Amino acid sequence: MPLSLSTYLFWGAGTALELLLCALALRNGLFRRLWFFTLYVLLVAIYEVSWFGAIHALGYKSKGAFYFFWLAQAILLSARAAAIAELCQHILRPYRGVWALAKSILLGIALILLGYATIATLGRTSWITAFILTAGRGLELAAAVILLTLLFISAYYRIRLEPVVRLVALGLCFFSTVQMLNNSFLVGWLVQYFRLMRFFPLWDGIRTLSFNVAVVIWCLAVWRPLSAMAPEATLLPQQIYDELAPQVNYRLRMLNQRLLEMLKV
Amino acid sequence: MSTPTIYVGLGVVLLMLFLLVLVLLLTRERADSRRAPEAAAALLSKGAFPIHCRHFPQVRQALSAADQQYLEQRASASIRRKARRERRKVAQQFVAGIKEDFLRLDRVGRTVASLSPGVSRKLEFERLRLMLRFWMLYGLVRMQLAMGVSVVTELARLTELVGGLAAQTERAMAALEEASARRLQSGIRA
Fold first, then answer.
1. Residue A134 near chain B (CB below 8 Å)
2. Are A259 and B158 a contacting pair at CB < 8 A?
3. Which chain A residue's Cα is nearest to B164?
């Protein structure tokens, strides 16, 4: 099936953006800071070019193109998961206490959401596309929640985010959130009432558009040469926290108690 | 409600949270370029807190019952009304100041936690819960003040609490500075 001019233009613009991102990431040394994320953007660019070759060689609606597409999605999703884990580590690891706490929270969230995604996916074994979309929905939900939690923790503890790291996190979070909505809408509503393949271009269009928005955000992140790495935070002796934290909490508790009493007056 | 509807709802909530985080990150970065814990530690060493609690004696005088009585006996109705408005304004501003002190002290707690090699999960979750509770109660107290309820005695207790915590924190930071200086000296000797 020949593709329309608009599809070519859409694909061309997206691929050009991804290649630009790869070039900027390599030129400005993003791989020294975020290795897995750089690998992910490289894989995306390779996929875009090879996907175009695959649909021309195998045909847009062929089984070969279908398997190529979903296999590539699985690889890209895994690479993105690795990039997210790397991002969490990069942001929080210098703060040992917070990292130990956040690690257990983030792992807990990931286990719960991935477990739920597995259960939801296993219940949809009847139709392979619905199966994949359900899995994708669960994984995107997990990614979005983990990234938002990470951003919340860093904001709460006033951990300074380098502009490049902040924009990478925001881009990933944006894409995961839109994808989760996209998958939910398709899996939940359109699949139930219509033939799915009829809406596949719509799903793919939203996915590509949101991804291009994320790529623009990432291009902005690596547009300029990266600044030198900030020196690692000097940690305080453990004794300070052990002495101060219970006192702070005690005072806050009492303060709330007083406020409550004021309300009762 | 069907599962897909829940998912779409969740997605919308996540999208809104994302936008909120985006706004927070962008505005806070501009408003306070010194977000690093190191910068907050510098704030501690300056002893820049609490500011508002220190003015409590003057505020108490302005809001005292004796003053109120004096006005009731001597002043005209219009002056009494004006005085009531002014007193309420003073109380509201003072409570807002207490909030600032509270936030500054809470930031100290978070900064110390972020710079510690180990933190207690229990204490950290408790502080987060207390902070959320404080915001809720603070909103209600503000509402009560807006309705004209006198809260002078309670303000005194509130001030003692925040002021006491600040004094303890300052002591801890002084000990910390001393320890750092000792480490530095021994490092130079080594």
1. no
2. yes
3. A251
- Chain B residues touching residue A248 (CB < 8 angstroms): 105-106, 108-109, 112, 127, 165, 169
The residue whose two tokens read 């936008």 is: B19
Largest CA distance in chain B: 77
Residue of B169, B149, B58 whose CA lies nearest to B104: B169
Are A97 and B119 inside 8 Å of each other by CB? Answer: yes
Contact by Cβ (8 Å): A12, A52: no
Categorize the per-residue pLDDT at B32 as very low, low, confident or very high, splitting at 50, 70 and 90. Answer: very low
How many angstroms away from the CA of A191 is the closest CA of chain B? 11
Q: Which of A93, A87, A95, A94 is nearest to A35 (CA)?
A: A87
- Give domain limits for chain B: 1-34, 36-189
Distance CA B33, CA A158 (A): 11
Q: ipTM value of the model?
A: 0.75
CA distance A77 to chain B (A): 18
Q: Quick one: which of B152, B176, B43 has its CA closest to B103?
A: B43
Give the DSSP per-residue string, A190-249. IHHHS-HHHHHHHHHHHHHHHHHHHHHHHHHHHSSPPPPPPPPPPPPPHHHHHHHHHHHH
Is the CB of A245 less than 8 angstroms away from the CB of B127?
Answer: yes
Torsion of CA B79, B83, B89, B94, to 10 degrees: 160
Express each pLDDT in B2-25 by its tens digit: 566 666 677 777 777 777 777 766
A36 φ/ψ angles, rounded to the nearest 5 degrees = -65, -35
